Every structure is written in structure tokens, then in C-alpha cells.
Amino acid sequence: MKDLISRKIEIGGEKFEVDLNNPFSRYANNPVVHPGMVNKMWESPHLQVKTVHNAGITIYNEEVLMLFRSHLRNGISILGIARSQDGLTDWRVDDCPAMLPCNKSDVFAQGSEPEAIIENEAGGLEDARIIKINDNYLITYSAYHSKIKDRVRVSMATTKDFKTFKRHGTLLDVDMRNVVIFPEKINGKYMGLFRPNDATISDIGGVFKQIRIGYSDDWAKNNWIIDDEPIMKQEGGPSPFKDKIGPGAPLIKTKHGWINIFHGVRNTMDGNPYVLGVALHDLSDPKNVRVSNIPVLFPSSADCRVEEQDYIHVPNVVFTCGAWKREDGAILMYYGGNDTVMNVAVSHEDVLAELCFRYPQDAMTGKPIYNLRNEFITN
Fold it and tell me: Is 2 part of a structural domain of the chain?
């Protein structure tokens, strides 16, 4: 057997091994945060939740902080916080939600339009991503309108302490769900990856199969300019990503390039299963990208361990909004299982990068550009 580039990782006494056949190793004690843990802290009936999923991740006060999404029983999503010393064990849920749909008593950035922001997110908050720039933690999240069906716009809030959140409003006045911002300027500009919504179709196909890059001189002004042409695209071939893709966790800077863990969907006779893929962007020019043709995580029964009477929201889904890298190159990724519980899986930068180098696909079509009859890429 050819070299699978394996890496052994130890975290808090737990041992993981990853290679090109198993690029992510699931934590044996998943889920790490689930609705029962939240409901013990949020005891009021109107705050009881049915899900905990799609969480942003950052390091704050030398702990791993998880900004998770939960569905209330009335269907509205809100954001809460859990914390862990090592990112695996002993998660503690804060005693009240972190972000609810805002009202006039909340904090708004100078120059923003409070009434428009209040209207824009009255239907709920979802899928937070977190990056740190200087002493600000930037949170992008999907904000849902309460009256206009399916209107969702990515918005931004900032915080310094995860107690007070300042609303900045929408990044763009167009429908969009998935946005990740690079955690530093590149060539003098802030950059981000954007996945547009398509108003002409329901949920897959069209521009749902594209990831575009955007630029801003000042993240605080929400003046993003998005390229017309995508940097990643699917054309509908036989791929687990063929019907929809989108950025997942914020970009992770490594010695190999920016690692982008994204999600992909393939329409089947029994629904739209979500998988996770990996791409590698050039450090100085992220438009140059290698995309692995091989997904890094498929949904399984291990991803949604619940009690018999518990609600399961969307079967066959793995979805990430957050990951972080240790100094030894290990990457801890946090992902929602079946849009119901929060899990952790572990990989290594060398393994994820090698998948992109050895088994790439055409970034603009999704077609494999390695020879299936040989193990290694052909020129």
C-alpha cells in the first residue's frame, strides 16, 4: 500500500489517528453538547430547545468557546454559548442565551439602521462563524426575516467579551447564507468566501453550486465587493458535492495554505445528504485553490446519538461552522450531526492538504483531475 500519510494525535488523554482513508477521526464521546445540557440551564419553558448545532468556534480566555445555534420549540433559532478547557471534555453551557433576535435595547454600531436590523433578524439567528481581528471578535450569522418567506441575509455582530454584542447589520442587501471571512488582511484587503442564494429555485442547483470571493477595505462598513465569477463551482457530475456547495468553518492558516472545510450536497431519491469537503487556498492569492475530489466526512449513525424519545431535525447531515488548529498541526472541527447535536472530529493539516494535492478536482467543474486507474495524480 502506498503511503497514506498518517498522523497520531493526543488531546487530553484521548488518542486519534488520521490518514488519507480516514481524514477525520470522530471523538468517541460525541455528542459534546446536546439539547438536554442546554435545557438544564435554560429552564424557562419559552427557552427550551430541540437542537444544538452549527456552532462558531474561537479561543477566548484560554478556553474553547462554542457559539451554537438552537431551535426553540416555536421554531425560531437563537445562539448560545458553551465552553471547554480542552475543546473535548467538560463542556459548560452558559446560564442564558447569548444572542436573541434583537430589539431596541440592544447595542448597534454607529451608522447602522436599528429598525432595519430588528426587522431583518426577527425570524431568528443561525450558523454563526467567528474570527478575531485585533481585539474584536467578528461574528457573521444568518438572519431570518419574520414575514418574508425564506429571506435570509448574512449579518455581522462584534464583541470583546461575549457578553455584549454590537449589531452592524447585513454584509450585503441580498439573500445569502454562507459567508466566511479570512482572519487577516491579504494584499491590503479583507477577504471572504460567499455562497449566493438563488431566488429562482428552491434549495439546490444554480448559484447554490458556486463559491465566490469578496473584498472589503474595512470590515466594519459592510461594503463588500463580490467577484462575478466563482472560484469554486460544480457542474453536476457524479460527485457528493454536485448539487450545492458552501464555505463552512472560517479559513485555517497552515504551512500548506489556507484550509477551507466546506459542505457539499448531492440530491438523491431519499433527500439531500450533506458531506464535508476540503480545499486549499494559496496564502497570498486565495483565488488560487486546490479542491479535494474526496470528501473528508460523510454522515453516519455516530453523528446523532440521542435518546429514543428525542427529536431529530434533518437526517444525513454533517455541517461545520468552526474549527481551530493547534501548534502541532492538529485540527479540531466542530460539526452538527443531523442538525440536532454538536460533535467533534480531529484531523491534521498535513493529511487535509495532501488530499488536495494528491486527489484534486477541477475547481470550476468538479471533475476529477487524477487518473482513477492509478493511486497518484497524473500530469
Answer: no
